């Protein structure tokens, strides 16, 4: 059995609130941002492969895991600010930022707010690319959603859900691809503080009609940054069709669709996910921030030639650069 690298949780206080994170490995820095309701453990299936090549920073976002759960700013911008400040405390100046689901939105926001910190952008089944989202998550934004979540997260109910849902998933019942991930989100939600933080985050980005916060209006600023979007074809939380919207909004993005994966491709197909990440980093050049080009792009409202070439320019295979076709992957 391979030796597991140290992924001990560290704690630092940032602006009076405790922040938990894993810092492990050596090499170029990767900032891994989990989705709403999860924590750094979502990356456990790939952490050994990543720390073998990179310095990995995997935090518990505020309100999640072992980080503090105050009444505070749980907006995308607030989370991006917290990541910048944590990196500053750790003495890390540049990262490839990798975000899953809600964390994908935070990753995009981080790259938008702090382009001087971002070398590359990887979004894994990210939010913010359309209104469509799981009916279950929409329902949790309604009055009484907190009570329903508390009942589902109670140990006896969660155990029953795990037995029934796990069995259905093991049998391959249609629509159950994301049952393990969803059950993982329930973990810890019997704690009122964690449950309140979860609902605060959720209701900030969607309502009963779907997602209300999007990235499409500012996606043009990422057109010159090496960008990769990874999706599972069996995603039941956010539709894989949103990958097409990412390709249209960021024409230079590399799009990877993994056939066997659901909403959690880093858990469902960790080897394939890690290989995609390795290859993306190996075949692209870190972005270089150019303040003048950034201002020109903002003033024009689009990624100009100067912005694409002077602000941040990826390298790699021609089929990845022009973004004409998604790459379908078969795990294993």
Nutshell version of this structure?
With 332 residues, this protein is of the alpha/beta class. The protein has helices spanning 44-51, 76-90, 102-113, 135-140, 145-153, 155-170, 179-186, 192-205, 242-249, 265-268, 270-282, 291-300, 305-311, 318-321; strands spanning 9-14, 17-24, 29-33, 55-60, 95-100, 118-124, 206-207, 210-211, 227-232, 254-258, 327-329. It has 14 helices and 11 strands.
Summed over residues and divided by their number, the pLDDT gives a mean of: 85
Q: Which residues form runs of ≥5 with pLDDT under 50?
A: 1-5, 304-327
Rg value: 19 Å
The CATH superfamily of the largest domain turns out to be Alpha/Beta hydrolase fold, catalytic domain
């Amino acid at each position: 059995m391979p030796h597991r690298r140290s992924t001990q949780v560290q704690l630092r206080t940032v602006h009076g609130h405790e922040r938990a994170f894993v810092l492990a490995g050596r090499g170029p820095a990767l900032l891994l941002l989990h989705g709403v309701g999860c924590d750094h453990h979502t990356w456990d299936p790939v952490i050994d492969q990543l720390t073998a090549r990179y310095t990995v920073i995997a935090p518990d976002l505020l309100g999640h895991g072992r980080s503090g759960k105050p009444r505070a700013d749980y907006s995308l911008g607030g989370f991006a600010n917290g990541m910048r400040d944590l990196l500053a405390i750790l003495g890390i100046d540049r990262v490839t930022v990798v975000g899953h689901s809600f964390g994908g939105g935070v990753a995009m926001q981080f790259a938008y707010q702090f382009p001087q910190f971002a070398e590359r952008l990887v979004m894994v089944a990210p939010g913010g690319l359309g209104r469509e989202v799981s009916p279950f998550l929409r329902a949790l934004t309604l009055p009484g959603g907190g009570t329903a979540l508390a009942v589902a997260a109670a140990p006896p109910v969660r155990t029953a859900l795990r037995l029934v849902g796990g069995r259905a998933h093991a049998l391959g019942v249609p629509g159950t691809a994301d049952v393990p991930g969803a059950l993982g989100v329930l973990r810890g939600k019997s704690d009122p503080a964690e449950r309140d933080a979860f609902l605060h985050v959720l209701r900030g980005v969607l309502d009963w009609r779907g997602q209300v916060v999007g990235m499409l209006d500012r996606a043009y600023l990422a057109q010159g940054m090496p960008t990769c979007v990874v999706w599972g074809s069996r995603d039941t939380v956010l539709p894989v069709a949103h990958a097409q919207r990412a390709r249209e909004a960021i024409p230079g993005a590399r799009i990877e669709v993994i056939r066997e994966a659901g909403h959690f491709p880093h858990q469902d197909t960790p080897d394939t996910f890690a290989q995609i990440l390795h290859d993306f980093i190996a075949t692209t050049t870190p972005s270089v921030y150019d303040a003048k080009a950034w201002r020109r792009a903002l003033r024009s409202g689009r990624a100009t030639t100067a912005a694409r070439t002077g602000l941040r320019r990826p390298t790699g295979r021609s089929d990845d650069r022009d973004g004409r076709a998604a790459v379908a992957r078969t795990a294993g």
